[in-house]
Amino acid sequence: MSSPEPGVAQIGPGLQDAAMPLTQKAAPSAAEIIRSRMPITVALPDEAATEELGRALAAELQAGDLVALSGEIGAGKTTLARAILRARLGDPELEAPSPTFTLLQTYESGDVPLVHADLYRIGGGGELYELGFDEMQASSIVLVEWPERAVGHLPAERLDILLELDAESGTRRALISGAGPLAERVLRAYTIAELLDGSGWGDAERVLMQGDASTRAYERLMKPSGETAILMISPPRPDGPPVRRGKPYSAIARLAESVHAFSAMDRGLIDQGLSAPSIYAEDLDVGLLVLEDFGSEPVVDQNGPIPDRYAEATRLLARLHARSLPTALPYGEEGTHQLPPYDLDAFMIEAELLLDWYLPHIVGTKPSGSVRAEFGHIWRDALAGLLAGRQTWTLRDFHSPNLIWLPEREGIRRVGLLDFQDAVLGPPAYDVASLLQDARVTVPPDLELKLLALYGRERKAADASFDMAEFATAYSIMGAQRATKILGIFARLDRRDGKPQYLAHLPRIRAYLARNLAHPALARLQGWFEYHGGDVFPKEEPADEEAAPESAPAGIETDTVADRLLSDAAEAGAATNVSTEPVAGGGAGAGKPAAEPEPRMVAMVLAAGLGKRMRPITDTRPKPLVEVAGRPLIDHALGRLLEAGLSKVVVNVHYLPDMIEDHVASLADLSITISDERDALLETGGGVKRALPLLGPEFLVLNSDSLWTERETKNLSRLLETWRPEEMDILLLLAPRKSLGYDGLGDFNMDANGRLTRRVFGALAPHVYAGAAIMKAELFDNTPEGAFSLNLLFDRAIEAGRLFGVALDGEWLHVGTPEAIGQAEARLAQSGA
Questions:
Q1: Counting C-beta atoms within 10 Å of the first and last residue's C-beta, which end of the chain has fewer, N or C?
Q2: What predicted TM-score, i.e. pTM, was given to this entire model?
Q3: Is 702 exposed, middle or buried (CB count within 10 Å of its CB: 0-12, 13-18, 19+)?
């Protein structure tokens, strides 16, 4: 097989090969753009030009905005202020004299009050306070002449306009600068005018188009000749608040920060022979594009999907997914956009929107930390196989609102594509599910089945190894993830953004989700939804057995389409060669006999202690959440487990348990299950014994406050490599007695073979238990009910000659008291940790 061309990725085997990051220029922030583009110079040769500038500025003003007008006497400050007032009030005859003596003049308009201020005569900022200027400014539009008289008392976020008069020619000019949202809006308006003039659309009428669920705006440009185009206004996305590991939601979910991604994907799709709109002009930093107008002919009608149009969209996806596609796409003159991977973090934070928005605001329940942890654990397992498999361009919003029918074109080019700036490298099944389980219109199951068969035929024709059974599983998993996400998004649009119209789609999404969850690969997730998902699976059956469930609109059935596909594909399209054997799991190889997977050892982190020696810090937080070097102790411990390849973790809780549950629920890289000990403090042995049903026959136990530095080989990896169950019952990680923060006599002696014995009474021992051990579940037979220490098992293993140890390669940091925190942080800093 020949190697792919440079910059081109084969569609698989996975993101490890296809999505290595390229160095690329980050999109500038709004503040950076303002600094680089301002001041704007506007020539004002006559009063008509001043009036025109006033109208343009008036259109951008909102409550809370302040415009500072500077310039010498006679430069035209009052003239420009009057032009703004006239435009805003809709009164071209308004006199609006300068309030030189009254200082302030207020004008009432239909929406926002306007204040015209002249500060020439004030003596300082105190007079502004007496006039109530601050309160007035917060809720009004304020125009200020002579702002230099109040230096330091005006808000930093304002628009500054310096008016200059050329004495010889008698003409004026305005220099516009500023900071904040108003300056950003004015710069955008000026840039739009420049862009339209420069691209031949300056004479076009601008008609605002209906918006979508995003923050973008669209205008249809209509020339006097009847020619049309689309103006897309999409300012750079400001970072939201950090939600996980210091990153905002948009970064974790891999959402595009600017239109650079749109421009790159647009070119990429056109290069693949598809119908994306041509770009007539662009200013990518400001977020402006003049695009080809595809019109408004949809792929749906009043009866729902138009079958032949949906079929063409399905063919488009099948043919795109069969190709080797570039993962880096050019934009502008020199820019390169790297398609990000649709990775586990992105899938998980999207699915968690159901927990954050849908359950609290639609169902009326707040999931506990353990419920959230179980949700995350199940989803991570379900997604693992897909993320290791074939990846391709995933446009993400490939559904009816973003598809335009172009009847004058041929074949798959009749499907016009919109809204693809958030494209990622992900599983092929995602966009297929997005289309055939359309969030905005009900796709009848029979049509869905036929289109899936069509997709299979197209893929099979291009690649004989295409496995429809595997794809059917992936389709159900992706459909379930997308439906889960959309339930949360539509709830958020209602509650946060004031867009209740999206709630009308919830019954359709719930029905899609229920159908997907019927697939065997999602049995555990179906169980979770039955207990915690509210109205996805109603607890009570309808009184009328023949009545459809309330959550299923007409045309939606609740059996899994993937199952029907496997049983009926021969009838729907025999050329698919679909296997009819049951699909037992997801990911690569689903539907085929699979080798028994190697079991992964489960780890348990002990986090239930009271942390008395850490008081007063632990009066208000559990010890596992005490921070050392900027991270909670438990995060240090969990990080060590991840480094050792252990991602399935049980955490026990007792003291301030909700705080620990909420914290670990936010960790995306681990499958964490909570062992609840709220009813009693069980000590180390009793805590592990209660959790045994969650652990395997052999498992690793780690204290949540275990902290050490590493050298070349990771210590937990060494512990796992040394473990020999045929010879050992327990294997301990041991630190030197002379360790930071430890002042005891030591715990164990170790012989040349690593076998351990207890310290002799009255003597010192060289080794201390460092809080990490591997042990067998069978050791807990014949142990006390309730609380007991693991030392009981250590002593039994010594008697049997089956307690062994591994010396820690690094420095153990015993953080037992508040005073030890600073010492430990200093050592971590020295080690570079």
A1: N
A2: 0.62
A3: buried
